[in-house]
């Protein structure tokens, strides 16, 4: 019995809220135009039920096409995710091999350049043998 009173109270509250909102002029005008448009649609479709069927069929076809496209898109994304998951070990292996190659190369470079004395300044003989350095000699 308590739930019966609850639903009655909710309905009465909704009706009271709707009536209070109609005190505003713009709200009344909007509700009136919406009711007129709804009446026109109902009148049109009641006179031409075939038109209602056709428009419903168009909406259904559009929804079905959209659902099919979404399904294909989801399948494509799922396939790509699976492909990426499968590639991850291969990519990791390639990265490790590249890292090892760079480490080996850097060790070789260190050995090559550590045997030779390095200097930032060119000697006079080195400077003359360098085409760029000799061209800037007068400046």
Describe this structure in words.
The chain has 139 residues and is an all-alpha fold. Helix content is 87%, strand content 0%. The chain is built from 5 helices and no strands. The longest helix has 67 residues, at 49-115. The N and C termini lie far apart (105 Å). The model has no long low-confidence stretch (mean pLDDT 81).
Give the tags.
139 residues; mainly alpha; 5 helices
Oligomer: single chain
Q: How big a fraction of the residues is strand?
A: under 5%
Please provide the count of β strands.
0
As a percent range, the share of helical residues equals: over 70%
SS content category: mainly alpha
Mean pLDDT: 81
Order of helices and strands: HHHHH
Per the principal axes of the C-alpha atoms, what is the gross shape?
A: elongated
- Please describe the biggest sheet, giving its number of strands, its sense, and whether it closes into a barrel: none
Enumerate how many helices there are, as a single number.
5
Q: List low-confidence stretches.
A: none
CA distance, first residue to last residue: 105 Å
**Mind telling me the C-alpha Rg?**
41 Å
């Amino acid at each position: 019995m308590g739930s019966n009173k609850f639903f009655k109270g909710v309905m009465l509250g909704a009706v009271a809220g709707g009536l209070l909102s109609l005190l505003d002029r713009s709200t009344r005008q909007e509700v009136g135009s919406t009711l007129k448009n709804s009446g026109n649609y109902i009148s049109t479709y009641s006179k031409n039920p075939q038109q209602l069927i056709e428009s419903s069929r168009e909406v259904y076809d559009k929804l079905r096409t959209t659902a099919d496209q979404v399904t294909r898109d989801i399948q494509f994304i799922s396939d790509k995710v699976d492909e990426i998951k499968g590639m991850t070990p291969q990519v990791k292996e390639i990265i490790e091999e590249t890292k090892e190659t760079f480490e080996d190369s850097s060790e070789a470079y260190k050995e090559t350049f550590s045997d030779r004395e390095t200097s930032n300044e060119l000697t006079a003989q080195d400077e003359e043998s360098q085409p760029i350095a000799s061209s800037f000699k007068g400046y």
